[in-house]
Write a structure and sequence with these properties.
Layout (H helix, E strand, L loop, with lengths): L1 E5 L2 H12 L6 H6 L1 H11 L2 H8 L8 E5 L22 H14 L2 E5 L9 E3 L18 E4 L21 E8 L6 E5 H5 L4 H7 L4 E4 L9 E5 L2 E4 L2 E4 L6 E3 L2 H13 L7 E3 L6 E5 L3 E5 L12 E8 L15 E2 L3
Parallel strand pairs: 1-2, 3-17
Antiparallel strand pairs: 2-14, 3-16, 4-16, 5-15, 6-14, 6-16, 7-13, 7-15, 8-9, 8-12, 10-11
Length: 327
């Protein structure tokens, strides 16, 4: 279920003016400012806009798209090294944290990924072009869940930070031929017989560390799906999963085939100033391979992880308060 929210010209203008008053754009400072951001946006946004964003986490909806946010007018070239200082894109940086604040989502990162930084720039890089990652381009990213090796919502964390509850993208540059594709888990499971759903809950799958974690360890066995409070949650990544026997492989293949039979394949292309966030474990997402031009204007989005249950994010001592420990 998608909820679409449109900013008005007045809201866009006032949000941009708020960003101009902020003096520092380093992540720890902005993280501490989030309560202030929520208060400011409660005054800037129309009541219906504010409530639509604030109510997302408690709703049955899994996807929300916010259109018409302010954007950085002097956008630099696409950062092919994968990183850029927040000061160079202050509006995009603040807007994501501000919307998380409104939604009651705590932004998080992981100590083994993205140098512990909150923001990851989803751009093609020359060093990762042939890898299956958000910095890759030559290979398709099949339907998957971000950081599936970490505990999903029905599972205990036991000192290891949980898989992100929320994954968001903020559009900076779009490519007319490249889409983010999202399917909802409930619609996938509707395609499957009960015995397959039951088999997906068996702990018969090992997972390798994602390439973004910089390792090759194998963890598990885990289940693909689990249930809590009457809802299913999933961990899926065909590039890192290892079924422990042939029966488990057959079940996994049936599950992945079902992702292609859903009624609604949501295909998103985010314009500059559009923000998409969705419930990571209640959906699966993908991206097709694409051609990179390296002309400074290639596809560019910013990614941010979040959680509404910070007690499941285990902080790393002597690091920033949003950095969680992993395996």
């Amino acid at each position: 279920m998608i909820n679409r929210v449109w900013m008005s010209w007045r809201e866009q203008k006032d949000l941009a003016a708020y960003v101009e008053k902020i003096a520092s754009f380093d992540e720890p400072t902005l993280f501490r400012m989030m309560p202030e951001m929520r208060e400011m946006l409660s005054n800037i946004l129309e009541p219906a806009t504010f409530e639509a964003i604030a109510g997302f986490m408690k709703s049955d909806g899994t996807i929300i798209r916010v259109c018409g946010l302010p954007f950085d007018k002097a956008l630099p070239e696409t950062p092919y090294g994968g990183y850029i200082e927040n000061e160079e894109i202050p509006v995009a940086t603040v807007m994501q944290l501000a919307l998380f604040a409104v939604a009651g989502i705590m932004p998080i990162s992981y100590n083994r990924e993205n140098r512990g930084l909150l923001f990851r720039h989803v751009v093609p890089t020359k060093t990762a072009a042939s890898k299956v990652s958000s910095h890759g381009s030559k290979f398709t990213l099949d339907m998957h869940v971000s950081n599936p090796i970490l505990p999903i919502t029905p599972e205990a964390t036991d000192g290891v930070s949980a898989s992100p509850e929320i994954l968001s993208f903020y559009g900076l540059r779009s490519d007319p031929d490249v889409f983010t594709e999202v399917v909802e888990l409930d619609e996938v499971l509707e395609q499957l017989p009960q015995h397959v759903i039951e088999a997906l809950q068996e702990k018969k799958y090992l997972f390798r560390m994602p390439s973004s974690f910089g390792g090759s360890e194998v963890k598990g066995p885990f289940s693909i799906i689990g249930m809590k409070d009457g809802k299913f949650f999933n961990r899926t990544d065909m590039d890192t999963v290892i079924p422990t026997d042939y029966a488990a492989l057959q079940v996994l293949n049936a599950f992945m085939q079902a992702t292609k039979k859903v009624r609604n394949l949501h295909r998103f292309q985010l314009g500059t100033g559009d923000m998409l966030f969705f419930k990571n474990q209640r959906t699966l997402h993908a991206r097709q391979k694409f051609e990179v031009r390296y002309n400074g204007l290639d596809r560019w989005m910013m990614r941010l992880y979040g959680t509404a249950t910070p007690e499941r994010h285990h902080w790393v001592p002597d690091q920033e308060p949003f950095v969680g420990a992993t395996y």
